[in-house]
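Re: folding output
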Amino acid sequence: MTNTPDSMGAPELSLVVPMYNEENVIQRFFDTVRPILDDIGLPYEIVCVNDGSRDATLLALTGIARKDPRVRVVDLTRNFGKEAALTAGLDLARGAAVIPIDADLQEPPELLPKMVAHWQDGFDVVLARRAERSSDTMFKRGSARMFYRLLRIMSDVEIPENVGDFRLMDREVVNALHRLPERTRFMKGIFAWLGFRQTTIDFVRPARQEGSGKFGFRKLFQLAMEGIISFSTVPLRMWSYVGFMVAAAALLFMLYILIDTLLFGRDTPGFATIATVLLFFNGLIMINLGIIGEYLARIFTEVKARPIYLVREQIQFETADAEEHKP
C-alpha cells in the first residue's frame, strides 16, 4: 500500500463526487460527509465534478468551496456523462487513497471509516457491495441479475456483482488506472481489470431522499451494451458458430429435399418456404452487421483520439488553468 501521495502537501484521502443536477442534495451531502471524514482524522479533500449541470449545482459548489479549502470543484464544459466525469475526478484527485461516491447518499458515507481501516490494513482496493436490491423495482432487479450473469459468461474479466463505483483505491491503483487511455469507458469493468489486492464490504442501499435517478432504461441499456462490447469479443466470435450451425442445417435440409424428390417425386414447397428462409437469414445477417457496427463505432471513437472530457474551470486548485485529459 502506498503510504504517501505523489506530491508534497497532498491529502491522505480524496473523495471524488461526479454531479449532474444535484442542487437539492448538495448541502445534505456535505453536512453528512464532512463530520465522518473529520472523525477519521486524516487530511482529506473532496473533488466535486460538475458534469454540465443545468441547475444551480455549480453555484452551490462554488459557494461551499470558497468557505472550505478542502472542497475542490471541476466544472466540465458540457455534460460528458458519469463515466467521463468520474475519470476527470480521478485524474485530479491527489490523495493516497481515492474514493468515488455519489452525491445522493445512496452509497452510505458511514462506510468510509471501515474502508479506510481495511486500506490501512494493507488492501489496495476496498469494494462496497450491495447486499440486496429491495429498493429497486422487480424489473431492475431481474435485468441487473441477467446482465451480471451474461457478463460473467462472456467476459474474460470477472466483474463483481452488485458492486458499483463506490470503492476505495490506493494511489498505486489510481496511477495504474491513468495508464488506460480508452475513450469509451465502462468504469466497473476497468476497475475490475486492474486487479490488485481487494476486500469487500456489504451494505444495504437506502432509498434516494431527494430528486430522481439519472439513469433511465435507455441509459441503463446503453451501459449494459458498453460493458459487454468493451470487455468481451464473444458477440463477434459467436457468429462463426451460428454460421456453421446454420450451414449444417441448410445442408441437411438440402439433402432431405433431394432424397425426398428423387424417391417420391414431390415438388419443393414454393413461395412461403422461400420467403420464410430468406427472411430468417436476412435477419441473422442484419443482427451480425449490427454487432459488427457496435465494435466499429468504438474503434472509430478510439481512432479519433478526442479527450474524454474538457474542463472549463477549476476552483480551489493550485493552478486555474483548465486542462484536458491526456492519456
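--- second protein (sequence, then structure) ---
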Amino acid sequence: MAALGWLTPRRRSATARSVLAGEASAEAARKTTQDVSGAEPDFPVRGDDRAAAFFDLDNTVMQGAALFHFGRGLYKRKFFETRDLARFAWQQTWFRLAGIEDPEHMQEARESALSIVQGHRVSELQSIGEEIYDEYMAERIWPGTRALAQAHLDAGQKVWLVTAAPVEIATVIARRLGLTGALGTVAESVDGVYTGRLVGEPLHGPAKAEAVRALAAAEGLDLSRCAAYSDSHNDIPMLSLVGHPYAINPDAKLRKHARRLDWRLRDYRTGRKAAKVGIPAAAGVGAVAGGTAAAIALHRRRR
C-alpha cells in the first residue's frame, strides 16, 4: 500500500505565499459577489401590481407646456387676439429660460385660466383638446419618456400623468399615449358647464404629492415600490414620496437635491446616450402654466 502513498494528500503547513494567495482569492470572490448583488436590478419589476409610475407632464413627457400649446389652439379658434398670443409666447420663453416661479404669476394664472373656461361646456373643451393634441402636441412627445412609460405598462403597472394643467387636457394626452389616466387641476362644473371656480387649488407642488398619496391609497399601491419622474424642484414632494424618484432634465435646485440624495438623474438635453433607463426634460409645470394664463388674462381684463 505504500506504493499508493502518492494518492493520499500530504499535510503541509501554509506558507506566507499560500496564505496571501488564499486571502486574495477570497477577496476576489467577495468583490465579485458584491458587484453582482449591487448591480442595478431590472426596473420596472414585471408583475408587481402594487407598483405604478407617476410622470410630470410639461417638459417631462412633452416638450414645452401643455397650456401653452392649448393656448395656441384657443387662439386659432378666436378665443383671444394676436397681441395676447405674442405676450403669451414671450411669457412661455421667459419662464423656460428663468426656470423660476412667481407667486403673483401663479395667482394670475389661476384667475385667468378660470375666466377663460367660465361658461363653456366641459364637452366643448374636451373636444377642442383632442384637436389641439393632434395639431400641436403629438409631435412634441419625448420618445425616451414614452418608451419608459411603456416599459412600466409592459411590466403590468399603471402609469399616470400628474400635472397642474387642467385634468381635461391631461386626460386627452394620457389616453392618446395609452396611459392609465391623469391627475390634473380640477375646475368646478355644474350641469356640464364651468363655473369659473376651482375644486381646491391647482395641482402644483405639495398638492401633487397629496394627489399621488390619495390615488395610491385608493388603488392599493405601495409607494415604496412606485416611481416618479419630473424636471422641477417644485415636484420634490412628489418625488420624495416614492421609492424610485427620477430627476429628468432637472433644474438647478432639483439637480442639487437629487445628487445629495443619490436619486437617479437623466438629462436628454445634452444628447448623451440614455442609460439603461432613459428619460427626458422639464421646466416647471406651475411656472409655465403661470406664464400661459397670465398672458391670456390681459385680453380678459380689456373686455
